[in-house]
Backbone:
């Protein structure tokens, strides 16, 4: 349903994303991982229209969407969450989601938007009380609200940006199960960007690994996890330095 | 209050206001009331944008266009204000779109937006002053007295008629305010005022929504200018355009309360009573004092009472409703 070909983004002389191509099939959950600054968020921002690609094409449901304005892309069926939740504090929780339900789905009717808001809030497990304030929500609640806003726009493809940052382990598992439930129950295809590899690997169908703006590996979670290049750039560097430091410390203690 | 009780309260209040000039005929007091109503409408028009963080200092420009275009068309082409006013509103609306579109398209927000609109105010004032052969420049301008049908010329001699006209216009302003307040556009504009990217990610066409509210605000402000001109039958660049008028709108709206429908009206009552009492109490010695007082009060209000007088009062009366976390 989504086909990205030769995607490039340069900021001045810096190439944030370099010639990345991938496909996402209907009903799939694709994990997108990579160290900080590897270009994950830049790809997301291009898919959702926040950034215009320097080159390359993004074909969604048969039409080219690269460079379209964000609101047009949302209305074609690509919803997104932000890495750091961005609630509208001047609106109630319900209004936050109803807004997305209205503007994200072609501004049909207020009643439909409110229905969509109720469904989305119920789906993520938030209160559908019309007067509940955003201020009462903690980190987990804000993430849920972020997800509810994206769901209310009626996406066929959901871009979930590092949705687990700042959560404890139980909340992480819950959130991961939530994404799977969204796929299973609503049939929404998902691209999930995440730092925390463990939880992600449990849920996704396929993983794509980025480093320095380039795709270095792609495949089943088990295959990718044992890919030497992935271990090197994503998991390895830290492990190596830690091991080296530990070895150094042992040598000193011994000598 | 339930919705019915709310509507009933508005209806009773409105009926009382309509009947007022028939039982109370003091012309000076009616004059003050007409001024309050016209300026309330202008301030309400400004707050359409202001309440969503779109602080415009260009509204003096829109008001000036409304007043001058209407008067010029009448004097030079003999065009009735019934035609001239819509033309002047379209002119102000067009200017609003011309200035607004690039601002919104290229994300000129906050202080930078204020500066662009400030320039707009200044430019309109300069144009009026510079084309003095047509507009009378800083000496002011007077629409020709109607020789025929007064209604066609929108010129009335009695205060009662003017009071009712001003009241009608003021009510239109409040209706539009409530209409927007209850529309989905309010959600979108509140969202935009907080975070444009997040609003766009919810599917909002940020540029279009901002242009819409700017257009509505400019059209209404031009109407206020035209009505003011028809009532006073004398306008100068300084009383209907320029930065001073724009600042006066900001001041009144903030003092009264930006986020409640009657806030700008409360602001108009305060500013006009202040200006009048200074004028009567100190005469020509107090010329410009009101602006000084405005300035000091504005600073105090922004620091201590950012929701304005009416906004803060209403909030205190409704303790069960959690305060909206506005700045």
Residues:
């Amino acid at each position: 349903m989504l086909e990205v070909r030769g995607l490039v983004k340069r900021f001045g002389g810096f190439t944030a994303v370099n010639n990345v191509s991938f496909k996402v099939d209907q009903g799939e959950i694709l994990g997108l991982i990579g160290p900080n600054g590897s270009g994950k968020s830049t790809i997301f921002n291009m898919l959702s229209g926040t950034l215009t690609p320097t080159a390359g094409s993004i074909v969604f449901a048969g039409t080219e969407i690269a460079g379209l304005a964000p609101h047009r892309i949302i209305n074609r069926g690509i919803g997104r969450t932000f890495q750091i939740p961005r609630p509208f504090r001047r609106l109630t929780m319900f209004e936050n989601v109803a807004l997305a339900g209205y503007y994200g789905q072609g501004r049909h009717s207020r009643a439909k938007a409110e229905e969509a808001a109720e469904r989305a809030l119920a789906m993520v497990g938030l209160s559908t009380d019309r007067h509940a304030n955003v201020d009462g929500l903690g980190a987990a609640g804000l993430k849920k609200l972020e997800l509810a806003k994206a769901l209310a726009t009626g996406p066929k493809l959901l871009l979930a940006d590092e949705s687990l940052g700042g959560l404890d382990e139980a909340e992480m598992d819950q959130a991961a199960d939530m994404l799977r439930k969204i796929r299973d129950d609503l049939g929404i295809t998902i691209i999930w960007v995440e730092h925390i590899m463990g939880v992600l690997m449990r849920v996704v169908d396929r993983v794509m690994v980025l480093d320095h703006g380039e795709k270095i590996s792609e495949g089943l979670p088990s295959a990718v996890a044992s890919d030497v290049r992935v271990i090197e750039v994503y998991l390895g560097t830290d492990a190596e330095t830690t091991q080296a430091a530990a070895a150094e410390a042992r040598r000193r203690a011994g000598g | 209050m339930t919705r019915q009780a709310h509507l009933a309260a508005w209806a009773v209040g409105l009926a009382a206001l309509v009947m007022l000039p028939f039982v109370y005929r003091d012309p000076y007091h009616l004059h003050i009331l007409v001024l309050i109503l016209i300026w309330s409408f202008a301030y309400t028009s400004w707050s359409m944008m202001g309440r969503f963080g779109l602080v415009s200092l260009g509204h003096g420009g829109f008001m000036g266009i409304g007043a001058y275009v209407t008067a010029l068309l009448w004097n030079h082409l003999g065009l009735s204000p019934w035609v001239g006013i819509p033309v002047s509103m379209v002119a102000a609306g067009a200017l609003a779109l011309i200035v607004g579109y690039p601002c919104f398209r290229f994300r000129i927000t906050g202080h930078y937006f204020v500066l662009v609109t400030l320039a707009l105010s200044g430019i309109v004032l300069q144009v009026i002053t510079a084309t003095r052969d047509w507009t009378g420049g800083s000496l002011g301008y007077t629409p020709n007295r109607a020789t025929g049908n007064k209604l066609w010329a929108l010129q009335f001699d009695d205060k009662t008629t003017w009071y009712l006209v001003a009241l009608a216009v003021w009510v239109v302003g409040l209706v539009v305010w409530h209409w927007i307040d209850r529309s989905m556009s309010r959600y979108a504009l509140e969202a935009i005022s907080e975070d444009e990217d997040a609003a766009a990610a919810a599917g909002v066409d940020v540029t279009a929504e901002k242009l819409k509210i700017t257009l509505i605000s400019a059209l209404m402000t031009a109407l206020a200018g035209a009505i003011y001109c028809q009532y006073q039958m004398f306008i100068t660049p300084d009383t209907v355009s320029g930065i001073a008028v724009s600042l006066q709108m900001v001041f009144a709206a903030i003092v009264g309360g930006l986020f409640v429908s009657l806030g700008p009206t409360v602001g108009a009552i305060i500013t006009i009573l202040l200006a009048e009492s200074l004028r009567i109490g100190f005469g020509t010695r107090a010329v410009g004092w009101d602006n000084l007082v405005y300035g000091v009060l504005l600073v105090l209000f922004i620091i201590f009472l950012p929701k304005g007088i009416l906004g803060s009062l209403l909030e205190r009366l409704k303790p069960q409703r959690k305060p909206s976390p506005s700045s």
Q: What stands out?
A: The first helix of chain B runs from residue 3 to 23. Chain B touches chain A through 22 residues (CB under 8 Å).
